[in-house]
Amino acid sequence: MKFFIDTANLEQIKEAQGLGVLDGVTTNPSLMAKEGIKGEKNIIEHYKKICEIVDGDVSAEVISTEFEGMIAEGEKLAALHPQIVVKVPVIKEGIKAIKYLTDKGIRTNCTLVFSSGQALLAAKAGATYVSPFIGRLDDNSTDGVELIRQIVEMYNYYEFDTQVLAASIRHTMHIIKCVEAGADVATCPLSAILGLLKHPLTDLGLEKFLADYHKLNG
Ligand code: G3P
Question: For ligand 1, which residues put their CB under 6 angstroms from it?
């Protein structure tokens, strides 16, 4: 199970990298906007900074919605750094672009996936990752984790190489449920990753161990 952090915030990326368990980063135009990163030059520089902080894959999303624009952007993004994975929305032009980029040896992350049919097309086009948005499904009274389970089962049955990257994770329990559903990757906010550490018995146990040590050792 790989852990990505879902943010464009450099401080949070550094903090997660410092834990030593980070496998990559996912961004999207909304996350870049949240950090106030605007203009092509600044966006490109920001991706480069992220690649310098982490060792793993860094998803960078295209803005174009037609094939020619998507592949031009994708090739430009991929040339920035070997860690870049080109993020492409699961629309008709996007599937064509994923196929094209895959044939060129460029890795892709098929995003905005909300159904197993979309995930099937992403895998057939050769996407490196498929990103089902589980939190947004939950927001719409649909079980997001169940979609992860269905896609994992389909990919295993048909032996697709595409990795299931659970996205739109909102909290720690989402991570646990995605592990149980067999996701290859979870991309999470830092708070959800840190939430995995929380247990009152750990805190109480540590307090007692230290108190007992200091009783004898001052
Ligand atoms: O990984 C996709 C993610 O950034 C979307 O999350 O919380 O906006 O649905 P959210």
Answer: 6, 26, 28, 31, 133, 135-136, 167-168, 170, 187
* Token pair in block for residue 9: 């915030």
Buried b (16+ CB within 10 A) or exposed e, 139-166: eeeeebbebbbbbbebbeeeebebbbbb
| Nearest-angstrom CA–CA distance, 32 and 47 | 10
> Ligand 1: which residue has its CA nearest to atom 2?
168
User: Which residue, judged by its Cα, is nearest atom 6 of ligand 1?
Assistant: 168
Give per-residue pLDDT as tens, 38-77.
999 999 999 999 999 999 999 999 999 999 999 999 999 9
Ligand 1 atom 5: residue of nearest CA: 168
The rounded distance, in Å, linking the Cα atoms of 101 and 122 is 12
For residue 168, report the distance from its CA to the centre of ligand 1, in Å: 4
Q: 80 C-alpha vs ligand 1 centroid, how far in Å? A: 24
Rg (alpha carbons) of the chain, rounded to whole number? 19
- Model-level pTM greater than 0.70? yes
**Residue 167 CA, ligand 1 centroid: distance in Å:** 6
DSSP H or E segment with residue 100: helix 92-103
In one-letter notation, the amino acid at residue 22 is L
C-alpha distances in angstroms, 30 versus 7, 68, 138? 10, 23, 19
Closest of 86, 127, 67 to residue 103, by C-alpha: 127
Measured between alpha carbons, how far is 142 from 40 in angstroms, rounded to an integer? 36
